[in-house]
Amino acid sequence: MGDIEKVIRERAYELWEHAGRPNGRSDEFWFAARAEFERKEGTREGRLGAAVRRRAQPPRHESAAEGWRKFA
Length: 72
Hints:
This protein is mostly helical. Helices cover about 60% and strands about 0% of the residues. Helix 1 (about 5-20) packs across helix 2 (about 25-45). The longest helix has 18 residues, at about 25-45. It is globular, with a radius of gyration of 11 Å.
């Protein structure tokens, strides 16, 4: 696992814990963490920190199952 994936995975876990560890929403937290990371990299802002506010939709080129495998 690369450094970027590790950062995203750890942030997704933090978001999931903060939301009360809900079942069946792993994709939401994975994609939210990845979006935070991409925004941070694009703007060179500080650390990741936005809360999950709505369900994230997987990009059309990646299935939800692929995103979960990265989180597991």
